[in-house]
Design brief:
The chain has 10 helices and 5 strands. The chain is α/β, with parallel strands linked by helices. Helix 4 packs across helix 5.
Amino acid sequence: MLHIGITGGVGAGKSEILKYLEQEYNCRVLLADEVAHDLMEPGTDCYSRLRQLFAGDGVFAEDGRIDRPALARVLFSDEEKRKACDGIVHPAVWDAVAKQAEEERQRGVLDLFVSEAALLQDEKEDAIRDEVWYIYTSEANRRARLKKSRGYSDQKIDGIFGSQMGEEEYRRRCAAEIDNNRTPAEAFAQIDRLLLARGIRKKGSME
């Protein structure tokens, strides 16, 4: 089983890539955001630590769960708390990803395990995967997609782009690059070639 990480800037089209991999290959896709959501539910160690960090900040609903819009407002306005929150959640997420990947490896059923993250937080986290692939889409195309699909303003997009890594840093950290500036079919063809070179074929392919 090959464990690949998929990364790229917001609006790069990672979701379509992940959907394709899940449909066409003997593959499981794990989204970092969904893992983080589960880890922030009451009863987890992550939640207990966040409860202490954000005590008095009004980010907890009556049922004890985290009010995510309220949390987002605090994180946006308080850089120190954002860093502290990241320091709690990110290591827990990657521990969970590594554990689930190892469980699938031991089961021996899958050809491919794919974990997605919009941001590469720490090079030590890259090591939990066999390879990390960069989905490259130009800023102009990403901007157009974000305006069309999410209704984002230029100001909001500028803020997002400013908080993410530059193209060269993504390239330095990643083993392969998929150009997703044109049609989905062209991006999928690149993925097929990369996987075939690593001995992984589509579901139902002849040996």
